Amino acid sequence: MGGLIAYVIFTGGFIGLALVLYYALKTVKLI
After folding, report:
1. Range of the domain at 11
2. Which listed site, 16, 19, 21, 30, has its alpha carbon 20 to 30 Å from 10?
């Protein structure tokens, strides 16, 4: 999963999506 996030940030066009996925994963961990 980290590789996917790194690729998204590398493209520089979907950083917002990467942040959404990051917070979504954090929420899942908290539950």
Report:
1. 1-31
2. 30
